[in-house]
Give the backbone structure.
Amino acid sequence: MGIEVNGKTYETDEEGYLANLSEWNPEVGSAMAKLDNCDLTESHWEVINFLREYYEEYQIAPAVRVLTKAIGKKLGPDKGNSKYLYELFPYGPGKQACKYAGLPKPTGCV
Amino acid sequence: MADFEIPVLNEYTRTPDLKKGVMAHLKPFVAKEVLQQPLNFPGELVENWEEKAVAKLGELKGKYRSLQVFLDICVKCGACTDKCHYYLGTSDAKNMPVARQDLLRQVYRRYYTFAGKFWAKLGMPWMVGAKDMTKDVLDDWYSYYHQCSQCRRCSVYCPYGIDTAEISMAAREIMDSIGVGQKYCNEIIGKVYKIGNNLGLPEPALADTLEGLEEEVKADTGVDVKFPLDVKGADILLITPSADFFAEPHVDGLIGYAKVFHEAGVNWTMSSYASEAANFGMFIGSYENMRRISRRIRKAALDLGVKRIVFGECGHAWRVAYSFLNTLAGPWDFLDPRYPVPQHICEFTFDLMKQGKLEFDKSQNDHRVMTYHDSCNVARASRMGDKPGGQMTIPREIIKATCNNFHDMPKDTIGEATFCCGGGGGLLTDDLMEVRVKGAQPRMEALKNVVDNNGVTHMAAICAICKAQFTKVLPYYGFTMDQIVSVHQLVSDAIVLNRKTD
C-alpha cells in the first residue's frame, strides 16, 4: 500500500501510517489528511509540529497530558485540554495527528 | 460515523434472531514476519500447515487437560447461546459460544475421536460433527476467534463450566504456531520485549511524563506528590498498564494511586524495565510469551530490592497476577509475606480506608452520579481481599467512600454476570471496530438503564482496556467519551492531602 504525492509513492501500512518515517514531509501529511476529508489549518500544524519535535527527542508520541500541557503553554490555557485536541482531530489526537505527522501509531490499551 | 449499522439500544437485552455469517468478513490484520519473529512464531503460513495445526492441537490437549475436557464434554444444551455480548450485538450464529467452540471441536472430533476417524473413512465426518482441517476452517478460526474477548461470561452459565476463553486461546496459539498471528497483539508483545511496555514508551519519555505529572499535581493541590521511577531500595513496586502514563482517563487513575501512596507515607517506585502490567501473552494463549513478560516483573523487583508488589488498574493483568504469577515468575520468597503477593491497588487503598488512614471530601465528586462496570477478568477470574466476592465489593466500597451518588446497573449485567466492554482479549484495535461497537451493546443498554432511571452521569472501571474501549464506543451510542472514569480518579478528586493527624 502507499500514498502518492507529487509523483512519488510513499509506502504505508494497512492503516495508512507511513512505513518509513524518515520519508515524511508536510505535503505527505496534508495528503494523508485529505484522504480523511480533513483540511489541515494552522492549528493542526501547531500540534503536528510539536508531535514531531517530541518524537525526535523521545522516539515516541507524547502522552496526552504532555501534549495538552505543551499546547496550553504555547496557545493559551483554553486550548490546553483534550477537548480542543479532539475538535481538531476527531479520531483522537494520539492516532489521527500521529498519522499526519508521520509517526507510528500508538499501540496498547489506548 | 461508521460504515456499519450501530445497534439500537433497547430497554433490556433482547436475544436477536440468528443471522448466518454476517460477521465472517471481519478479520484483524495479520502479523508480518517482523512482528512474529520476536515471539518465536513462523513469519508466514508454513508448509503442511494442516498437519501441523492438528499436531499442535494434539500437543495442547495433552498439556492442558481442561482443553480436552472442554472439547469432549459439551452436550449442546444451549445455555450459553444468548450469553455472549458479541452474539447479542451482531446476531451472527457463530458468535454463540457453543458455535465458537465447535469451530475447534469439529477438528478435534475429526482427528482425535474414534467416531470422527471412523466416519471420515466413510466420507461422512459430518455425521458426528467432525470436519477436516481446511483453509475454510482456518479462515473461520481467524475471524471468529478474534471476535471473542475471552471474558468467560458464557462459562458462568454453562452447566459443565466449559470455558470458551481457553478454547479461543488454544485456537490462537495453534494459528500463531503455523504462522498466522494477529498484528495487534503480537506487535505489542514485541514492544514489551524491546522497550518494556505495550506502548513502546522508552525510559526518557516515561521520566519526562512522570515529571510533568508531578508538576501538574503540585499546581492543582500545592502538594509535592511524587511519581518515583527506578528508585532502588523502595518498599513497593507499582506495576501498572502503560496506558496509565499515556491516555485519559487512565492517567487520572495513576494520579490517584500516587496520592494514596503519598498519604500512606510509603516508599514506592515504578520501574522503566517492567513498565507494563498488561500481559498479552494470555490473550494469544502462549504460555511461553506470558512467562517471558511476567519474568520482567520478577527481574525488576529483584533489581530494585522491593518488598512488595502492587498492581494498578488493569483487568487481565490482575488475572495473570492473582492466578498465575507464582507459577510463571515465582517463588516470591524475597517479598514481605505479611502482605498479599501481589496486591491490587484497590486492596491497598481499601486497607488504608479501614485503618482510618485516608480522609475523603465526598462533595468533590458531587457533580457525578456513579455506576461501576465490573471488568470481566477481575470479576470472573480473580479475587480481592479476604472474602469471596471481594473483587466486586472492594471497588464499590471505594467508590461509595469517595462519592455521594452511586447506583448499580441491572443485576444480570454486573458482578459475576458482568458484560464485557467489548474490547477485551486483544480486540482493542481499530481494525475490529465493528465488533467492538456491536459487542458493547449489552453494556450500553445497562448503562442507559441507570442513566434514564437514576440520573447516572459517569461509569467507573478498573481496567485500561475497558477505559480505552468506552472512550471510543460511548459516542456511538449517544454518550460522551468522558463519561468513563478510573476508580482512582474518584479517589484522586476526593482525597484530602496532608491531613492533620494527632
In short: The radius of gyration of chain A is 13 Å. Residues 48 and 101 of chain A are 5 Å apart (CA to CA). The interface with chain B takes residues 14-15, 57-60, 62-66, 69, 82, 86, 92, 94-95, 104, 106-110 of chain A (CB under 8 Å).
